[in-house]
Design brief:
mainly alpha; 64% helix; 2% strand
Length: 276
């Protein structure tokens, strides 16, 4: 399947609005026993929680937007994970390249992209578009060069497996507990890309938005299952933010809508079309 400018995945997977859904996806990754253990034991998560995001996201987005180099990018992402394995705090062996573990990480990104469309974009996904976006996400996953065995056959099967993970597989791992505590209680500063003089803005404006989008973006099943605080006021504030972002985004210049890797992909596609 071709993933190019005509695909739904190109429309949203490199969009800056992914930042409004991506933190919830990150929490869902940390709740997976194997992923949570790998992050604790093989990253600087507790001392530099943004490091993993800064290193990982451009390459993951590149698996969609890197054109003829996309599969090489995917294989490089896969190979970064070869040494991430061990035994978790309950004595269970884990490996980042275990097929169902690697797939769950991808599934959270697929969920995140769909959430951008559902909550922050004017184009509403009908059943055919939702199926199309899912199948494009399967191609995204295929480019990593790992086992396709865990991949659900269609969007309906994906929904069933997703619900099973949320209800039965995810755990409150050490990494997830720390991340949720940060979202609920910390005044977050030192955000990547923000100069030092924006510290008060980060603390008083960005921190509440991070809390709303990370906790509010979790499936209700997960919040209820683990007793994560979420009120009617929180829900109303999140809905207001969704409306504001959805309505204001139409005035955002196209050049500012996408992250660098996605923007490069769009430019390359434009040059190719003009040269044809």
């Amino acid at each position: 399947m071709d993933l190019g400018p005509g695909s739904l995945l190109w429309r949203w997977s490199g969009d800056h609005r992914l930042g409004a859904t991506g933190l919830a996806a990150g929490l869902l990754q940390l709740m997976h026993p194997g992923l949570g253990a790998g992050v604790v034991e093989h990253s600087a998560f507790f001392t530099d929680p943004w490091d993993r995001i800064i290193r990982s996201i451009p390459e993951i987005v590149g698996v969609v937007y890197d054109g003829p180099d996309a599969e090489a990018t995917g294989h490089r992402v896969r190979d970064y994970h070869r040494g991430i394995k061990g035994v978790d705090d309950q004595g269970r062996p884990y490996s980042a390249l275990k097929p169902e573990t690697f797939w769950w990480a991808h599934a959270t990104f697929q969920f995140s992209v769909e959430q951008v469309a559902d909550r922050f974009d004017h184009r509403q996904l009908g059943s055919a578009d939702r199926e199309r976006l899912y199948r494009e996400g399967v191609e995204w996953y295929r480019r990593y060069g790992v086992s396709m065995a865990p991949v659900p056959a269609d969007r309906a099967a994906f929904a069933a497996v997703w619900d099973h993970y949320c209800s039965d597989v995810l755990e409150m791992t050490v990494a997830a507990e720390r991340a949720i505590d940060m979202a609920l209680h910390d005044k977050i500063t030192g955000l990547p890309g923000f100069p030092w003089w924006t510290t008060p803005f980060q603390r008083e404006v960005i921190t509440p938005l991070l809390r709303l989008t990370s906790i509010g973006g979790l499936p209700a099943t997960v919040r209820t299952r683990f007793g994560i605080p979420w009120s009617a006021v929180d829900a109303a504030e999140l809905k207001a933010f969704e409306v504001w972002l959805r309505e204001s985004w139409r005035f955002m210049p196209r050049s500012l809508r996408f992250g660098p890797r996605a923007a490069d992909g769009w430019k390359r596609a434009t040059r190719s079309r003009q040269a044809a």
